[in-house]
Structure formats: structure tokens, C-alpha cells
Design a protein that fits this description.
Layout: E1 8-15, H1 18-28, E2 32-38, E3 46-51, E4 60-65, E5 78-87, H2 91-100, E6 107-111, E7 114-120, E8 126-132, E9 153-161, H3 165-173, E10 177-182, E11 185-189, E12 198-203, E13 217-224, H4 227-240, E14 248-249, E15 253-259, E16 265-273, H5 298-304
Parallel strand pairs: 1-4, 5-8, 9-12, 13-16
Antiparallel strand pairs: 1-13, 2-3, 3-4, 5-9, 6-7, 7-8, 10-11, 11-12, 14-15, 15-16
């Protein structure tokens, strides 16, 4: 069993509009845009990152906004819901805030003893806020949400699968332990993790496979401290039979990817070097940053990409 993984690093999804996506995460949810860059493989498309003040691993939601992309079809083989941690007693505040903002899909419930507020993103994305007592992570409060209510980072993510077995065993190999199981959901967690250290598997044997599109999660990334730990994880996964990519430099972290038995694309990303490697912390996410291989495209991209504040 591995011990290098400490929880989530980031979650990356698809969107149809960069401007709408940016307003939702900064104005409505109060997160900070910590990086404005482009998709490594499609540089005419933004890659936007939102999180806490510095984009701490375990707080970062990222998006590829493909203009006019068709909406995804929910189903199995994907991340179903991405859940954020908020302070205990703040669900009422968020219900009022999201309702006034016209957010769809508002519904409160509880699971595993935790109060939750479900809501939909602009493209039908599945989200929830979870009340967590004494989450020690510092929130970003620069966009008008006070410290008593602000998002602390991820709480968890749920995987929708037709069968739990092989992916559950994979999570255990990655250092997760089964915490509980109820109503078709099995909960896994990492003791002493980074706060974003819970994964739920929802078993849905009769649901069709998901189709990727706007509102779909493209991949989910798990955090390791550094490149040395990442190479240890890569070696162990390959020895177990997984087809893992070479290490890829993503400017703000190094990444490896592999497809899970249930169909979800997993990434393992390093905490280093971080989002302030090319911008001062006070100005994160303000300028358009380009990977070096796309630097020569700056003039064309600045004319092509949708302006966002």
C-alpha cells in the first residue's frame, strides 16, 4: 500500500464559456482565480484555476472552457459530485447566497453525519458544500465571502461507477481506507491527509456510461509532496499493471495520468513548484501565462481568447 498520496490536488472539468465560468467561481463561490493560462494540447482554449489565496493543493478547481461545447451526459465512469468544505453552521448563508444568484439544483441533505447543500454549476456541474467542524485550512476572502462562511477547499469527490470492486481496491492501494458504507455509497479516506482526503464511490449498476462535455469532470488529481514521491507512486502503479504516462511538466506541478478500472481518469500531481512560480502572490491569476512552447502564439491568443476580468 502506498503512503505518498495525501488527498486531492485538483479537479479539472469542462465548460462552455470562460466568462460565465469565471464569474461563477469568483463572484458566486468567492474563490480566487489563481491562474489564467491555456490548455497545453489546445492552446486556443483557456485553462482556468480557482482556489484559495495561493492555490494550495486540495483547494483548486480547474476548467477547460471550450466555446459552444455540447453539455455532457451524466452517467457512470466519471466524477459525479465535487464537494467543498465550509464552516459548520454556514449552509443557511450559502443557501441564501446561491438562491439570490439564481443557482440551480439547490437541495439540502445529510450523509455520513454531515450537512450538505447540493447545487449545479453553470453547465449542470454537480457540486455540494459540506459543513465541516474546525477545518483548519485558511479560506480566501478577497471576493466578498467572510471568513465565517468561506470555502476552505475540497472536502471530497464522488465517483459514479457501475461496480465498486476494482476501483475500491485501487483506492486502498493508493493509501485510502474504507470509513463507512451506506445507501449504495462507500466512503474512503486518508487518515492525516490534507483535508481534501475523502472519496465516495456511488455504485450504480444500471446507469449508462457518461458522455464527456460541458459540466463533466475531465480528470481528478491526487496530491504528492514532490517529484521523488511521484516517481515512487508511478513505479508502484506500473508494477501493479496500470498503464501510467511519463511525467509531464504542467508548469505549476508535474503530472502523471492513468485510467482506472471504473473508467475515471486519475492524475497524480506534485505540490511543487506551485502557482506563484511565475507571478507574485498578490497578483495571481491576473495576467495570461503561456507554456513556453506556446509563447510565440501570445499575440494571436490574446486576440482570440474571450476577455475575462
Amino acid at each position: 500500500m502506498l503512503d505518498q498520496i495525501k488527498g486531492l490536488h485538483h479537479v479539472t472539468s469542462m465548460a462552455a464559456s470562460a466568462g460565465t465560468n469565471n464569474r461563477f467561481f469568483t463572484d458566486t463561490l468567492g474563490l480566487r482565480r489563481v491562474k489564467k493560462t491555456v490548455n497545453f494540447d489546445a492552446p486556443d482554449v483557456y485553462h482556468l484555476y480557482y482556489g484559495d489565496e495561493v492555490g494550495t493543493p486540495g483547494s483548486v478547481m480547474t476548467y477547460f472552457p471550450f466555446p459552444h461545447i455540447a453539455r455532457g451526459r451524466p452517467g457512470t465512469g466519471e466524477v459525479g459530485t465535487t464537494l467543498f468544505s465550509v464552516p459548520e453552521g454556514s449552509i443557511g448563508y450559502w443557501t441564501d447566497r446561491l438562491s439570490k444568484a439564481g443557482v440551480d439544483g439547490l437541495k439540502t441533505d445529510s450523509a455520513f453525519g454531515e450537512n450538505r447543500l447540493h447545487f449545479a454549476g453553470p453547465d449542470g456541474d454537480g457540486f455540494a458544500l459540506v459543513e465541516v467542524k474546525d477545518d483548519p485550512r485558511a479560506p480566501w476572502t478577497g471576493n466578498g465571502v467572510g471568513e465565517d462562511n468561506a470555502i476552505r477547499g475540497f472536502h471530497s469527490a464522488s465517483l459514479r461507477l457501475r461496480d465498486e470492486g476494482a476501483t475500491g481496491e485501487l483506492l486502498k492501494y493508493m493509501g485510502y481506507s474504507q470509513i463507512d458504507a451506506k445507501d449504495g455509497v462507500t466512503r474512503f479516506g486518508i487518515p492525516g491527509g490534507n483535508g481534501a482526503d475523502v472519496i465516495d464511490i456511488e455504485t450504480m449498476p444500471n446507469i449508462a456510461h457518461a458522455h464527456l462535455g460541458a459540466g463533466s469532470v475531465h480528470h481528478i488529481a491526487f496530491a504528492v509532496e514532490n517529484r521523488e514521491k511521484q516517481l515512487e507512486v508511478r513505479k508502484a502503479l506500473m508494477e501493479t499493471g496500470y498503464q501510467v504516462t511519463p511525467v509531464i511538466d504542467r508548469d505549476y506541478f508535474w503530472a502523471i495520468y492513468f485510467r482506472t478500472p471504473g473508467g475515471v481518469l486519475f492524475e497524480v500531481a506534485t505540490n511543487e513548484p506551485g502557482f506563484n512560480r511565475d507571478e507574485d502572490t498578490a497578483h495571481l491569476g491576473e495576467a495570461l501565462k503561456l507554456p513556453k512552447q506556446h509563447a510565440h502564439l501570445r499575440e494571436a491568443l490574446e486576440q482570440h481568447l474571450e476577455p475575462i476580468e
